Structures are given as C-alpha cells and as structure tokens.
Amino acid sequence: MSEKPWGGRFSAPTDEFVEAFNASTHVDARMYREDIEGSRAHARMLGRQGILSHADVQTILRGLDEVEQEIEAGDFTFSIALEDVHMNIEARLTAKIGDAGKRLHTARSRNDQVATDTRLYLRRRCDDVLARLQTLQQVLVTQAKAHADTVMPGFTHLQSAQPVTLGHHLLAYVEMLERDRGRFADARQRMNRCPLGAAALAGSTFPIDREWTARELGFDGPTANSLDSVSDRDFIMELLSAAAITAVHLSRFSEELINWMSAQFAFIDLPDAFCTGSSIMPQKKNPDMPELVRGKTGRIIGALVSILVTMKSLPLAYNKDMQEDKEAIFDALDNLEGSLRIFGEMLPGMQVRRQRMREAAASGFATATDLADALVRAGVPFREAHAIVGKSVAWCIAHDCMLESMPADACAAIDERLDAAMLAQLSVENCVAARDHVGGTAPAQVRLQCQRWQQQWENV
Ligand code: ARG
C-alpha cells in the first residue's frame, strides 16, 4: 500500500515524475497561515457540534500552533510527495499528535479547504492592494497640488492640443486609481463567503455548523451551494480583471513618464534611485522603472487570460485543472503590488522642468481654440471662427511665428474681425485659467479637487 494520505485503494506507487508534476507546494506553501487558520476553525466547530471530543480539539489546536511555529521558524520541509500545503500540514500534525490529527479531516475535503484558504489569502492581499492604491493616490494629489498651475501641453493623438495643468493631468490618474479601488473593494465583498463545509462537492453527512466557521473566519456567511463552493473561481477572475485594469493604468502612466523623460520632451527627471545607466553609453539615464512596470502589464493581463482559459469548459465541480489558478494570481498580485510600490516611492522625487513644459505648451498653436472662442464672443459663428483661425495658423506656419505675434495687417487680410486685442490675450496661463468649471483644467479647479480628495481621506 502507498504511503499517501489517499493511498488505501492504490497498489503501486506514484510515478516519480508524476509526483513532481502533480505537486503544488512550491506555489501554495505561502498559504500555510490561512490553511492553519481554517483548520483551527474547522476543528473547533467539530468540537462544538460534538463530532470531535473536546480533548481531540485541544490536542489539534496545540499541534497546529506547533506546526505554525515550525514553518515560521523555517524548520519545516514541504515534501512534494505530500502534494500540497494542505496535506503537508496535516501529515506533520499527525506525526506530532497521532490519532487526533487523523480526525481533523472529518467532514472536510481538500476541495473546500483549498477554496477557503485561497479566499482567506486573497482577501488579505486585496486589502494590501487597496492600501497601496490609496498611498499612490495620495502621492499624486500632493504632486498635483504642487503643480496646480504648472502649464504643460495637453495632447490628443500625441499632437499638441490645448494647454493643461500638470496637476490636472496627474489628477486624471487619481480618478483611474479610484475606480480601481472600487473594483478591488467590490471583488473583495463578493469573495467574502466561506466554502468550508461543502466538503468534496455535495456537503457532509455530519451535523456541521457552516455559519459558525464562516463567522469565525471573518466571512460574511457561508456559500449557498456546495457544488458552486468548490468549483467557483470567479473571485480569482474578478481580482485579476481588476488587477489587469490597474496594470493598464500604470502602463499608460509609465508610457507618459518615459516620453516626458526623453531629451525630446525633457519635461521631467526621475530620481537616480529609480533609473539605471548603460554599460556602453556613458550619457544614458534610463527610466527603467516605468519601463518595467509597463512590461509587467503583459504578465498581469496574461494571468487574467490564463485563469479565464483554465476555467472555460470545466464541468462541475472540482477539477485538478484548478490547481493552476494560484500561480497566476499570486504572480500577478506580487507584480502589481510591486509596481504600485515603485510608483508610490518614485513620484515624490520627480523633478519637473516647468519652464520647458510651459514652452512646449505655448508651441504647436495650442491656443488656437481659445482664439476661435474669442471670435465667437465677438459674434462670429463658431464654424467661421474655426476657419479664420485655421487660416491664421497656416499664415503663422508659413511665416514661422506664433499666433500672438501676427502683425495687424496679416490679421486684417485674413478677416477684419480678427483683432490684435484678441491675440494679446492668448497666453497659455489664460487658456488654462479660463477652463474654470467642474472637471476643467484651471488651477483653481485643480486645487479644489485636491482639497476634495484630501477631505475624503480624512473622513474615513
Ligand atoms: N492542490 C490542490 C489545488 O490547489 C488542492 C485540492 C486538491 N483536491 C483534490 N481532490 N485533488 O487545487
């Protein structure tokens, strides 16, 4: 007979390579705390329900404490022959305490166990991500406040469009991160139901109290259907969707920082501690961190695709395919949290070249819309105003000058309604200050928004 916990009906040992291929300890060992926490709750419930004796429960709890200490002290060797974290811990417990250890798995299966452990573990990781998202938002709001009136070019199609303030630009990311927080919080709430007691797939013949274990483990209650409980991985798909969207946001931001740090833009400089040099080109200072964060987006999106494809077409209830769920989500969350941490620590040290940003904002005829608006105020229909300013821009390109330096006779030749006073008003500062309404780029609005965010955080 095989020595496996499930070896009773087997007569031949597991193939050696199958053993290694089958094992998940290298991935799931990190859930040891949650596994022990789940076992404690399960054992106590069995005791309360008279399914295990009080003495056995006490022995199990003591044994679990010892196993936890061994793991924490680094004295525990996970064996691939025991497949996963669950059987490793149970085997060690039994080696320590004997029969009581063998009774722990009454009314439980690894199928509800792994679903419970994973939810417990991811719930904690979800809270970590939520905290990191908020820290990054706070860093961005601090920078936005400092740059409420730093003017930069706003782009569409990556062409100069209209001047905006850097503060306004940074606050756009605060909005994205807030929606990200909403998605993580929402996923967390739906995930917070306890599958323990679903056992293998159909429930248990013992008089278990699922309400009790659920509350004991901090869940909002037990899951309602045993088949769904052991086969549901929606919580992983949801978390990975949220993670992928957050990664996309960080990637877009990365792309901008990389552009802004190039000699061609020269808008910002990132701190040395977050950049690296070149082994051959002595002049180089590369924005490696934003580049790497942009790169991490690929594997995080990959993790989402991986769990979706793994789950697609799986019949109810548990299937071994689902063991593949953890590697992807763990890796994605590690990298997402790492990316959030990098951004949170790098951005306070970002140097902004205000003068250079302002010059860039003033070039490329970014004030053209405001000139058209001025004509409209003087009674010119917008479509006509658009055409007049279009001709003016063409004139300026041909004569290599800015709109505000067009001579009066050139204006008059294009249209007599185009007057020099309008041109004199065309500063980039006036352009941003004029957009003074909810959601607009005016420095006053940026300050208001920063205040709104800070008050919101103070009130929680
Ligand atoms: N290591 C498995 C997993 O991660 C645990 C559950 C296995 N259950 C089973 N009946 N083989 O999915």
Strand order of the largest sheet: 1-2
Uncertain regions spanning at least 5 consecutive residues: none
Q: How many H/I helical runs?
A: 20
SSE series? HHHHHHHEEHHHHEHHEHHHHHHH
* Global geometry: elongated
For the record, what is the CATH homologous superfamily label of the largest domain? Fumarase/aspartase (Central domain)
What is the share of helical residues?
55-70%
Give a structural overview:
The longest helix is centred in the first third of the chain and has 37 residues, at 110-146. A hairpin with a 2-residue loop joins strand 1 (151-156) and strand 2. The strands form two sheets. The chain has a two-stranded antiparallel ribbon with strand order 1-2. The chain has three domains: 7-106, Fumarase/aspartase (N-terminal domain) (Fumarase C, Chain B, domain 1), CATH 1.10.275; 111-359, Fumarase/aspartase (Central domain) (Fumarase C, Chain A, domain 2); 362-458, Ribonucleotide Reductase Protein R1, domain 1 (Orthogonal Bundle), CATH 1.10.40. The chain has helices at residues 16-22, 25-28, 32-48, 54-72, 85-97, 99-103, 110-146, 166-191, 210-216, 226-231, 234-261, 288-311, 325-346, 354-362, 368-377, 382-399, 408-414, 420-424, 428-434, 443-458; strands at residues 151-156, 159-165, 268-269, 351-352. The chain is elongated. It is mostly helical. The protein is 62% helix and 4% strand. Arginine binds next to helix 7.
